[in-house]
Amino acid sequence: MRPRIGVTTSRRTGWRVFPVIALNVWLAGGRALRWDSGRDADIDAADGLIVGGGDDISPLLYHGEMVAEARLDPDRDALERRLVMAAQAAGKPVLGICRGAQMLNVALGGNLHQRAYDHYADSRRYSTILPRKAVSVLPDTGLARIAGTAPMRVNALHSQAVDRLGAGLRIAARDAGGMVQAVERITPPFALGVQWHPEYLIYARRQRALFRALVAAARA
User: Fold this and answer.
1) Using a CB cutoff of 8 Å and minimum separation of 24, what contacts does 38-44 make?
2) Is 80 a catalytic residue?
3) Which residue of 10, 18, 127, 171 has the smallest Cβ count within 10 Å?
4) Which CATH class, in words, describes the domain spanning 4-219?
């Protein structure tokens, strides 16, 4: 039996994003279920959770100030926050992708830089699914055990980033300017959030390993 992995997506763009994530999950040995704020989503129906990318997270969730350019979906915020907390309570693994990494952090009590590149002036800004951003994986982390510590080239589509860490999380990767690029739970259950989009880097062994780690944790 393939572990079932619930995948949250934007109601606007999920139709094109979900098939790519579902393929990665299938190649890793799992089966993806599509969830969004217009569909029933229950963590009891899945063995693991992927929180996908897309819309910005409302700063109201972490007592931040609203910015004019934010593209929000309060229903999706509520759904994903509930699912992250339910997965943790049930001991089920979570993989956060871009927005999903941010939601993992916010759900556990952290906050975000809404204009991350204003704060990290030495971080190069990209908006591409091609692997152009250099990321350093921190040693002695779960991400290092999954993908190794060699410098990693990833894509980047984000404008926000993790600021204060949520409860039980640690930083697992940064870019050359110091901006947080991955966070993870220190203790079980497995929870990893990456600021990039590994689903579009399906040809890269180290990126496929992220999905394999999630499915393995779900199977266990």
Assistant:
1) 38/11, 41/6, 41/8, 41/79, 41/83, 43/6, 43/83, 43/86, 43/87, 43/90, 43/92, 44/90
2) no
3) 127
4) alpha beta
